[in-house]
Give the backbone structure.
Amino acid sequence: MQRILVVVLLGLLASGLLSCSRGGAQEVVVYTSVDQVFSEPIFRAFERETGIAVRAVFDTEETKSTGVLNRLIAEARSPRTDVFWSGDPVRPFVLINHGLVEAYISPSATAIPPSFKAADGTWTGFAARARVLLVNKHRVPSQDTPRSIEDLANPRWKGQAAMANPLFGTTTMHVAALFATWGEARAGRFLEQVKANNVRIASSNGEVKRLVIAGESAFGLLDSDDATDALNAGVAVEVVYPDQDTLGTLVMPTAVVLIRGGPHPQNGRKLIDYLLSPDVEARMAGTAGHMPLRSTVPTPAHVRPVSALRMMPADYSRVTSEIERIQPWLRNWVGL
Amino acid sequence: MAPELGRSVRTSLKRLEEPLALYSVGVVLCLVALVPFLFLVGELVVGGPKAMSQSLAIVTSFRLQRLFLDSFGLALAVTVLSLLVGVPMGVLLGKTDVAGRSLALLLYAFPIFVPPFLLALGWFYLLGHQGFVGNERTAAVLFSPFGAVAVLSLNFAPIVTMFVAIGLQGIDQTLEEAARLVAPPWRVVTHILLPLIWPAVATAALVVFALAFSELAVPMFLRVPNYPAAILARLSGMQYDPGEAFALVLPLLGLSLILLLIERRFLGERSFEVFGLHSIEAWTMPLKSWKPLMSPVCWFLALFSITPLMALAVRASDGGFPAVFQWIGSSPGYSLLFGSISATVIVMIGLVAGRAVARKTRGSRYCDAIAVLAFVAPASVLGVGLIAVWSHPATQFVYGSMVIVILGLIARYGVIGIRTLAATIAQSSPHLEESAAAFGAGFFRRMTQILLPMHWRGVVAAWLLALVFCLRDLDTVILFYPPGMETLTIRIFTLEANGPEAVVAALALLHILLTVGALGAGAALLLRGRPR
């Protein structure tokens, strides 16, 4: 028995060492803040098609977008990542500002509209989401359905609405876009009114979805993929694309960047080409409720086409600057 | 001349074996479990006065102070509730003739080996708004501080029970017999046995408090704001500022040191006296007329303890099992790999340091104290420290590989090896080793030819215990696991928010089966060749 134990332990140690030394050319390392449930099947499909193994780090829902982003920054002195697939278009700008991005113009990105990609190839967007309102139909009569994000501050809904912590995830981007569009005075006033209106601050968009589905909140501000998820669950909810007559709805493409100095740059480019392909965009639309940016990619029935939306004007580079600028203000607002 | 010189050198080297082994273990423990904390302090000092004053402002902000107090209150409530439930259960299942007490103890204690957030998930499937027996009110209770306290207490109370049960087994029979001559059984328990095992109860309370205070996943899942989550959030904010995160860590470091001092001052010397297995034939207290009442109570609590696991099973049966292999990846393999290697190193460290602690060798207390510090400190603190130490270009062979995970697990759970093996080795007389030493046996020879054969069951038990704790770990490794090498607990956690519920439940069950398998294999090994 002792010999068997020794053999088993040696076997485990050997396989461990093999795992340690794994770092050959036929692999690519990707960090992503796109939901694992959607991104992982795409990585597996890439592996099947190319034979290149994908080693991924996924974000947890609560730290979405910034967990892996900060890991990338923390590892900047010795990058171990080839590709960052961001759930929104502003995080790539943080990496660009840190000098961590290698420009790459992918041949797969030709048909993507110029407003959703950088001319110099530092980032490329595809498969977008929108910031929407998810409304619980049991709690809200159809005639009262909120139609604007400003309803978060409406006393009619005091204590009945929810949004995610604006220090994290796509809510950060949304708030920064408001500061960029409305100006500091109006955006600040709006957020103070939101606070005074006892809007529930959830740890993530997924939690906002749960709160609305459970009826704990009448409506909430979240991403369209979360809303699609709620619709697919068959619960009595309605998805509202807000401010279609005024400000417009914020649209956020997912975005890929090539990391400078990554261990497998060639495979990183191959993965980017694959991710930007129309097939993957169609798959993101079908399974994850994302909006295709290319007119040639079909939009599923349950997803609103980008062309049919009044979009909120958003210069992603400026929004990134706003995010960094308003951090102290936001921390104070959140109380951290 | 030459042979004499050679003999003299060999003798000197043999004498050096023990201190060298202990120093080596000390160096390893310092590197993995102490240096990370020192780095945190260093990062703050390097930032200069401006960074220090900024950090001070953050730490002293009202919101964070309140979060800290909330977390403190939560951990305290969990500890008190765990003691209230765990101590009586320890007495009942460890000392009395409750019907089927071995099986009841096994069922009741099983949640110890399950990551707390899986239990929270199970309770969610049961009591959530759309749970099997859930409604708006049950969901409101579950998603509240009360729910978090209840879930964590159910997870941690068995720890107290096990400490009490083992402590009761270790009490000198002569004391019990003397007491039974003059007092009824319940007075023996309340006036003799419980006072005798108070160090075990106090140690259990400290362990529960430390685990509850550092728990990240359950409060996050149940939407209860807590301090460790605030640190994680700080490290995940848009403007990554490790200096500020380190500042947030300082109050936790202070609390960890206080816990360590309490442990050292009041319990460090006494713990092993009661953990021993002095008697094999322990007295079983007859419950007599109380048996028909107490047996159902124990069984109710045992079944209640595993209720969330049953809820997971029911949820998983709704289409989760067929899809599980699509989502599982290599995570069970990595869990077992990381756990096995870490448990092996933990046992190796435990053999040297645990033996030194049992024999009260000079310097052993420092090794033990470092290991205890890393265990009682919140996992996020240790994680941040490990990143600060190892995330550099020159140390990518560590940070860029599974080695960082192994280091994290060794740091976090090293104390399990040290304490378990110290308790085991303390049962054997040092004279055996002294006799061998007198005949020229060096430290390693005594270790391999006396201690290991004599205590192999204790060694296997320590390895199993360390393995199970490594398997259930989430909070330590989630901060730095290498790309593509996530453990099963990480996979469940990252899939939990948006993954199919039935699949997540099935993955959770698989994790439980993995643990049961490891424990079952270990139990079979331990029972093999046991004297009857």
User: Anything to note?
Assistant: The two ends of chain B are 55 Å apart (CA to CA). Residues 272-280 of chain B have pLDDT under 50 and may be disordered.
